[in-house]
């Protein structure tokens, strides 16, 4: 018997893939989404756990894309939503084309916010549902050479904290923010940041461990979880260290050609 229906965005690789796998292992039927054909192969892997899996290849930076994703539920109640999709493009902001940074903002902010509004309205209406949103510790850090991504995660970290407060009297509905640091995923290849210090750092977190931290936090109804002890320390330091210093530290990690 299915535990219910879970939607997972950005589920083709990395943290999103691992979160979808945990949901399938736990007995949830799945709707998994990404903006690449690889989502179909991922869906086949999740089906091995004996649950129904629907794959949706869709542009989650648009309102229409999110509507297409939600339509895949075909009227079924959505019990869990994991809003994990995120896109980055590293490099100097002035060198980036408009379509690139607009797509990042659309996916990381607009699509995520719209998805949350749609699903949380239903959840609050029936007093039941769990939502996990992937933010990031970089939301606390000015991000030279990844400026758009860090800024979008600052928005998500702040937005979910505010929304959680708005929902505090909604019985049975929880909203959890997962805040990882650098994680060993395809993120750095896609962002064109493999030749940076952070891209080549071999101590990046295991996406399966990050996903497990987020999944457990969501199930227990925690407000947010910073995955990793070092990342917890970085968040604490962000409230003490001057922003200009944090920006310079980030530049050394994210500027192309800066390697260990």
From TrEMBL:
GO terms for molecular function: oxidoreductase activity. It holds the Pfam family adh_short. SUPFAM superfamilies: NAD(P)-binding Rossmann-fold domains (SSF51735). It comes from the Bacteria. Keywords: Oxidoreductase. Belongs to the short-chain dehydrogenases/reductases (SDR) family. PANTHER family: ALCOHOL DEHYDROGENASE. This is Short-subunit dehydrogenase. It comes from Sphingomonas yantingensis.
